[in-house]
Write a structure and sequence with these properties.
The longest helix has 28 residues. It contains 14 helices and 22 strands. It is globular and about 65 Å long. The protein is 31% helix and 20% strand. Helix 6 packs across helix 7, helix 10 runs parallel beside helix 11 and helix 13 crosses helix 14. It folds into two domains: 267 residues, 4-Layer Sandwich (Metallo-beta-lactamase, Chain A), CATH 3.60.15.10; 171 residues, Rossmann fold (3-Layer(aba) Sandwich). With 451 residues, the chain is of the alpha/beta class. A seven-stranded mixed beta sheet has the order 6-5-4-3-2-1-22. Strands 7-8-9-10-11-20-21 form a seven-stranded mixed beta sheet, with helices on one face. It has a six-stranded parallel beta sheet with strand order 14-13-15-12-16-19, sandwiched between helices. It binds zinc ion (ZN). Zinc ion binds next to loops.
Length: 451
């Protein structure tokens, strides 16, 4: 077996691991690099291997840091199939088309305001590149083995996000398990991760490898924030990941209203066409969710869906107190920027980030206490309250990652800790070594191993 770490090997983004097993070259995930500029610039580099030499891509889940470079891969010549669970395929369609749209918009805006260092800014990829990539996705239901030559590929649900799975590869002699992103027990939307099959080699994520999630009642906390902000005559802005987090927040807001903990008349806006589409997909795949009966169908009841750009602009100018959910979740782009620009200068409002903020993103800067923030080339003062809502993470913490790893049964021969910032990856490595006694290491970006 040969392993080549092409991304998410010193960071949490750009998940791409090339595995050569049983004569097949299989790329596990094909993610976008996000966050710091030095990472984002990797999106523009040609891949270290010729995409034409890859036989198949297997996607763990639809998040862009795992799927967002598929259009780039196809643009650089990849011709093979892309395997993903049926729900991942549906979500990837929404996410990739939106990502391409944002790339096109950013290039257009950069050209209009000339704030690009390049003479003419080009999109990383276009919607037509995304469509070509999507056409290659073949649905592989979890638990069903797919034969790629001598190699059998199996997906196992791992919580985290609708459709998310761990990936197991075996050629009958050697085997590999890739965790993808591991979810949590007690997740609001997703059932607990299912244990993975034993494998000789394990790739395990480490997003929260150095921390334990606090026990927080996210519903009570959100209720308090909404009541306090309404009391100041302000608006609560929830920059939200359109897929997953937006639906969790909708469910919480519905539960708060049903319990009378926030007034029924508080208008709730869902200002993200992608989140609206994703909500529909969560309803369609509701059998995969951990919600109470009927809750999935009711999650958008009474919520004002903002579809057009003009409606979104009107909402950004409105001074009427409300709760606005808008993407993107790290305020790296999308409609949330309009709202942020309009709400950030006023201390009556509150901006609540709900989810991991990648270092270098606007979300991370704001949560870190930035007093001004650059939006569309303009510095905007930040006087609104900024907070982050804990307790909604879709990622296992260190203890839960170890628990999931234990589910493999006996020790893998080799374990590689991926998908974490240096400190988190190293902390998880240490715990796996000390508590499980496994041979474990953290690979570097671009590193290769023959096993
Ligand atoms: Zn993920």
């Amino acid at each position: 077996m040969d392993l080549h770490f092409l991304g998410a090997a010193d960071s949490v983004t750009g998940s791409r691991h090339l595995v050569t097993i049983g004569g097949q070259r299989i790329l596990l995930d094909c993610g976008l690099f996000q966050g710091y500029k030095v990472l984002r610039e990797r999106n523009w580099a040609p891949m270290a291997v010729d995409p034409r030499d890859i036989d198949a891509v297997v996607l763990s889940h639809a998040h862009l840091d795992h799927s967002g470079w598929l259009p780039g891969l196809v643009r650089q010549g990849y011709r093979g199939p892309i395997y993903a669970s049926p729900a991942t395929r549906d979500l990837a369609e929404v996410l990739l088309l939106d990502s391409a749209h944002l790339q096109e918009e950013d290039a257009r805006r950069a050209n209009r305001y000339h704030f690009s260092r390049h003479d003419k800014a080009l999109p990383l990829y276009t919607r037509s590149d995304a469509r070509r990539a999507l056409a290659k996705i073949v649905a592989l239901p979890p638990g069903k083995a797919l034969a790629l030559g001598r190699v059998s590929v199996t997906l196992t649900p791992v919580g985290h996000l609708l459709g998310a799975c761990s990936v197991h590869l075996s050629d009958g002699q050697e085997s590999l398990c890739f965790s993808g992103d591991v979810g949590r027990r007690g997740d609001l939307l997703m059932p607990p991760p299912e244990p993975a099959q034993h494998a000789d080699v394990l790739l395990i994520e480490s997003t929260y490898g150095n921390r334990l999630h606090p026990v927080v009642d996210a519903q009570a906390e959100l209720g308090r924030i909404v009541r306090d902000t309404m009391g100041r005559g302000g608006t609560v802005l929830l920059p939200t990941f359109a897929v997953g987090r937006a639906q969790a927040l909708l469910v919480l807001l519905q539960r708060l209203k049903a319990a009378g903990e926030i007034p029924d008349r508080v208008p709730i806006y869902l200002d993200s066409p992608m989140a609206i589409e994703a909500t529909e997909l969560y309803r369609r795949h509701r059998r995969l969710l951990a919600l109470r009966p009927g809750e999935a169908l009711r999650m958008a009841d009474g919520v004002r869906l903002v579809t057009t750009g003009a409606q979104s602009q009107r909402l950004a100018q409105s001074r009427y107190p409300s709760v606005i959910l808008s993407a993107s979740g790290m305020a790296t782009g999308g409609r949330v920027l309009l709202h942020l620009k309009s709400l950030a200068p006023d201390p009556r409002h509150q901006v609540v980030f709900a989810g991991f903020q990648v270092g270098g993103s606007r979300g991370a800067k704001l949560v870190g206490g930035a007093t001004e923030i650059k939006i569309h080339g303009e510095m905007v003062p930040v006087r609104a309250r900024i907070s982050s809502l804990e307790g909604l993470s879709g990622h296992a913490d260190a203890k839960e990652l170890l628990e999931w790893a234990r589910g493999l049964g006996r020790a893998p021969n080799r374990t590689f800790v991926v998908h974490g910032e240096a400190e988190a990856a190293d902390a998880l490595r240490t715990r796996i070594k000390d508590e499980l006694g496994w041979a474990v290491q953290v690979p570097q970006h671009g590193e290769r191993f023959t096993i």
